[in-house]
Design brief:
Blueprint lengths: L2 E6 L7 H12 L3 E4 L8 E5 L2 E5 L12 E4 L7 H10 L9 E4 L7 H9 L1 H7 L6 H9 L16 E2 L1 H10 L4 E4 L23 H8 L8 E7 L3 E2 L11 H7 L13 E2 L4 H11 L3 E5 L1 H4 L14 H14 L3 E5 L7 E3 L5
Helix pairs in contact: 3-5
């Protein structure tokens, strides 16, 4: 069975959560591992009309048979972790989750610095979740690790061993990324970026798998890219224009209104190349073409929507395998078998 990584191709908020939730439900991976920065990224999932937002645990929590893992490269906020165990108790996550003992811990001092530092919070527009300062302490080798926190002891494991063992046994492994490529510390719009690399290669490293163990990389793009916080946004439109199009969104973690732009084909191509995309997922096609709402058959999409997907495939050079046409799990077109 293959392993695959799902990452964001723009500036976060691409709808990775809805794509991951679908894959977790449809493909039934036996292991779902989360990479990425930490609690500064939120994924939202709608299940039967109810919204679930997670910042620490894997977004594929609704796959009740899956082992849920948080990789060593991910920052852990114990408070957020335990709140999410409670928030998702109906899904029985507490008995299925494992945190790598080597995860660095976000402490209150990190959050305080993130909220009060004029450069980080004022100029860069960080979320205030403490991730940047915690990663700085990790680089300085002074950060506490998960193995140092007594309350986390029942959940500690070696995620790298678990994931590689699962692959050796032929199990399907889904690896989740967070944020988006444009926020990568290396490849994004520095200094308006997050505190580490967010490309697929980094996400693989976060959970302890080498590049030869990854079969597919699914890069997620939104029909109208959005961005929270400061930084370059070449295709940005005015708030008034976004309102006319019905694209008004707020960040899962910060609650701040997202900036909205037109689809950037050149950036999408660059992002797909660096991430090594084997497949694209396009979300919120119903925002681009309202007649696409809820459609689950590609052939039944409106002409304008089809032309948009075809233009993406032609100009980006990667096939579109998944198309979200609404917020619910079932609002999706799955073309993977035809690629």
């Amino acid at each position: 069975m293959p392993s695959y990584i799902v990452v964001g191709g723009q500036w976060g908020d691409e709808g990775k959560g809805s794509v991951i939730a679908y894959l977790a439900t449809k493909d039934e991976p036996e292991v779902i591992a989360r990479g990425g920065v930490g609690t500064n990224a939120g994924h939202s999932v709608f299940i039967h009309g109810k919204k679930y937002a997670v910042r620490q645990l894997p977004t594929g929590f609704m796959q009740r048979e899956a082992r849920l893992l948080v990789g060593a490269g991910v920052l852990v906020d114990p408070g957020v972790f335990f709140r999410e165990l409670e928030h998702l108790k109906d899904f029985g996550v507490a008995s299925r989750v494992g945190i790598d003992a080597r995860c660095a811990i976000i402490e209150e001092k990190h959050k305080e610095l993130d909220r009060t530092n004029g450069y980080l919070h004022g100029k860069i527009g960080t979320t205030g979740s403490g991730c940047g300062p915690a990663n700085a302490d990790r680089v300085m080798r002074t950060a506490k690790l998960a193995k140092d926190i007594k309350e986390l002891e029942p959940y500690l494991t070696d995620v790298a061993v678990e994931v590689n063992d699962a692959l050796d046994e032929g199990k399907l492994v889904l690896v989740e990324g967070t944020q988006g490529f444009g926020l990568s510390l290396y490849y994004g719009t520095y200094p308006y970026v997050t505190s580490k690399d967010t490309s697929a290669s980094a996400i693989a490293s976060d959970v302890g798998i080498g590049p030869t163990r990854v079969d597919d990389v699914i890069v997620v793009f939104k029909s109208f890219p959005t961005r929270v916080g400061a930084g370059p946004f070449p295709t940005e439109m005015s708030q008034e224009e976004a309102e006319k199009l019905g694209v008004v969104e707020y960040g899962t973690v910060t609650g701040r209104r997202r900036r909205v732009g037109w689809f950037d084909f050149d950036f999408a191509r660059y992002s797909s190349r660096i991430n090594g995309a084997t497949m694209l997922a396009i979300t919120m096609l119903d925002k681009y073409e309202r007649g696409a709402f809820g459609v689950t058959d590609y052939d039944k999409l409106p002409k304008r929507a089809k032309e948009f997907i075809e233009e993406i495939e032609e100009r980006v050079g990667v096939p579109v395998g998944l198309i979200k046409t609404g917020p619910e799990l079932e609002h999706i077109i799955d073309r993977r078998e035809n690629l």
